């Protein structure tokens, strides 16, 4: 049994004729298909198609272009795209990056930290560190790894860094040492927090829970 032309139950009278919107030539098309707008030659050529403008502000992922930040170490101004910066920290060179890492991971920030004095952090640090570990059950508040799993106490991280208080005219280092400003973190989570991969808001919510 044939299903060609009129014998096809979907037959609607064959092709119709229309005019190409580009070159004005007449061409045939099946009305059952998408409405004919362009003749086969123009479709094949494709020169009428325009690539969308995705440069600068026209890009749907545009977030304002380059921004200026001050190097954490030498204070020179850096101009880069926001995605090129690592968290809240901006450094201009590999040398400054190494210097920043050395400072950031000194004392309790160092992966091998096992306790010690409070000379660099001022008075009150040892006390609040002990209280934070007890509050957090000696486990990382983010990934829940325990002291036994880590083989040591978790680090105790300042949510607002000590240097922020030290650099303030109205505060001193010791003002950073209060229970709501510290969170117990494993080495990996501590590093993420230092590089801004875990936000201050998230850390505060974790210790509040």
Q: What does the secondary structure layout of this molecule look like, with pairings?
A:
Blueprint: E1 16-19, E2 26-29, H1 40-45, E3 67-70, E4 77-80, H2 94-104, H3 125-135, H4 147-150, E5 155-158, H5 162-166, E6 182-185, H6 187-194, H7 200-208
Antiparallel strand pairs: 1-2, 3-4, 5-6
Word description of this protein:
The structure is a single chain. By secondary structure, the protein is an alpha+beta fold. It has three domains: 15-50, no CATH class; 67-104, no CATH class; 111-208, no CATH class. Helices cover 26% and strands 11% of the residues. The protein is built from seven helices and six strands. The longest helix has 11 residues, at 94-104. The termini are far apart. 17% of the residues are buried. This is HNH endonuclease. GO terms for molecular function: endonuclease activity; hydrolase activity; nucleic acid binding; zinc ion binding. Residues 140-193 form the HNH domain. Pfam families: HNH.
Q: What brief labels describe this structure?
A:
single chain, 209 residues, alpha+beta, 26% helix
Q: Strand portion, in percent?
A: 5-15%
Radius of gyration: 32 Å
- Which structural class should the secondary elements be placed in? alpha+beta
Total beta strands: 6
- Spatially, the strands of the biggest sheet line up as 1-2
InterPro entries: HNH, HNH_nuc
Pfam families: HNH
Protein name: HNH endonuclease
Keywords: Endonuclease, Hydrolase, Nuclease
